[in-house]
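Thread: quick sanity check before group meeting

JM: Hey all, I'm pulling together slides for Thursday and realized we never actually wrote out the predicted structure for the chain we discussed last week. Dropping the sequence here so it's in one place. If anyone has concerns about the input, flag it before I start.
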Amino acid sequence: MKKILLLTFLVSAISFAQKKSEIDSKYFLLGTLSDYIGRNQFSDKKDVIESYAAHEKPLVDKLDDLFSNDSLIIEKIDSDNFKSTRYNLISKSINSSLNSLYNFKFSSLTYPKKDSIFNGKLKDSILKNDSEKISFLLGCLSRFSVNYDMKLKRKEFCLQFANSISKFNLAQKTISELGFTISKVETLKNIPRINRVYFTVDNSNYKIFKEYNLIGIEIQNNLVNYFSRSKK
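JM (edit): ok, ran it. Output follows.
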């Protein structure tokens, strides 16, 4: 009888652990989207979700893995200059689903094509459960974490956003709603304006946050290595 109870407990524990580590790909991707002066969308490019730089290839690979069963196209724009190489994520249906989480307003026209540009701000209360909230924060951490030349406390993470319209505020709110601890919030009044939030997570989530933070570390190392090579 004891063996049966122990086996039942182990199966339940494993099942619970697997459930906690599941990533909601939509909200993870949302966390990676740029919020530099909001989210810009072009009327003639409704299928382009986001563009990632060459040094962000580790994140592009992770997104490719998460959306392996979806109709997501990754378009590489090659360039002789490493810094100019881009990866475009393309899917009309996924982009439409993500854009439904924003309120858009007309911003300007491009020249000379006169294509309309719309600027988006995240809606309120778009993250409905813990899975969506954690996935969103992991997406933020993968692209917007700061580790290089930073004096972080043990088990502390830091998110940094430049000229953020709504993502910085949503990140802070989400961290608090999950019961994590915000240790510091700061604004660097330079150009662009930089907002940072420092936080720690509970023990049950630390492992997965550390795992996705490694993507951010790799991205930063790639960028540092590029600039080091270019100076030689």
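AS: nice. Residues 203-230 form the longest helix (28 residues). The longest strand covers residues 102-109.
JM: adding both to the slides.
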